Fold these 2 entries.
Entry 1:
Amino acid sequence: MSSHAKASRAYAAAQGFRSLRDQEADLFLRANAALRQSRDGGALPLVRALSDTNRLWSAVIDLVRDPDNALPARLKASIVSVGLAVQREVDRPAPDIDFLIAVNADLAAGLANRA
């Protein structure tokens, strides 16, 4: 077995010991890492980071709008509002990367109970 395969198995096994909220927070932190790296990487990394951020927030919005979602209505409305603001920012000709990073960091902190 290759070292890459061993590392992948170890990572997958370790994920089972982390809470779902921590794993969700990690998605936002990864999006932020890509956004930070895109600042110095040229157009392609920026497009990828923005696309990934947009897809992440699209998924969040869809999950929050699901009728079976048990979150309180006001919280769901707030999350959708933030998500739509992020999507509008991503679609701008020159998105504010610092804004996107701040929003993602805030949500990650909330998910990890660090808010």
Entry 2:
Amino acid sequence: MDLQQTTTRITEQTALIERLRQEIGKVLVGQEKLVDRMLIALIGGGHILLEGVPGLAKTTAIRTLSQALGLQFQRISFTPDLLPADVVGTLIYSQKDGSFLPKKGPVFTNLLLADEINRAPAKVQSALLEAMQEQRVTLGDTTYPLPAPFLVMATQNPIEQKGTYPLPEAQIDRFMMKCVVTYPSRDDERRIMNRFTHPLAGEVAPVMDAAQIQTLRGVLDQVYCDEKVGEYILDIVQATREPSAFGLAPLANQIEMGASPRATLWLHVGARAHALLHGRAYATPQDVKEIARDVLRHRILLTYEAEAENVNADQVVETILNTIPVP
């Protein structure tokens, strides 16, 4: 399919995407970037890790998205006493015929909110590994596919560390993006205050369904990414592993472990999805830059020297983006 045909297909979807934004905007105020990231993950088949203090509408965001998409939504509050069976389900013994019947857990949904995921121990966090990667769950000897589309949005509080369990590298790497949610601006907070003084004018109406999301994924497959943009993505990821080879020798003492190959894949998918959401049939280096921080910040492991110097992953990514030549 040529670029003109893909552009035509994207134009047909633009009005639908705009309606979706408007419906979400009935409830969510001033979180356009977060909405974009959720749509990129949904279209690209990824998952999102959200970090932010309480009260920033993280739960409201995914619930509103599920209403606007007409998809099933489940929420799991991760606590220290949670068990893996509470997430994926288990087998129940039937006295009637002596068999074991599957009891599916809340993970069998379209949109799953893993609330404060770092409050549950590793054995519970690992219950999501198969679901997030293979889109399926094994109960006993049988493997059950999860509904499509399937999106996990996990939240964690960056401030309170007491009683929490840091996510293992294998778990955190399965998230397409880690988004940091900050406080709203003064104008946005005024709009929030005024909006919620009175009941909402109308309910969020479904404007898209699973079939239309699948159509968008088909369009995404046709979005063009030039070889030079692909090389740019490879340079960025390689620079996190071998900074000295890219003229970034000072970062060599700050990065303990660079980004995994998943970073390359998600940068490629995310850049094309970002282009699609903005009505273009081709990805540009700017699309890569727009999502690079979200894709890379949780995949770069910093050294003690970097932490002692108050250097964070965002600053490392920013340095890389400012140094690697743009094609």
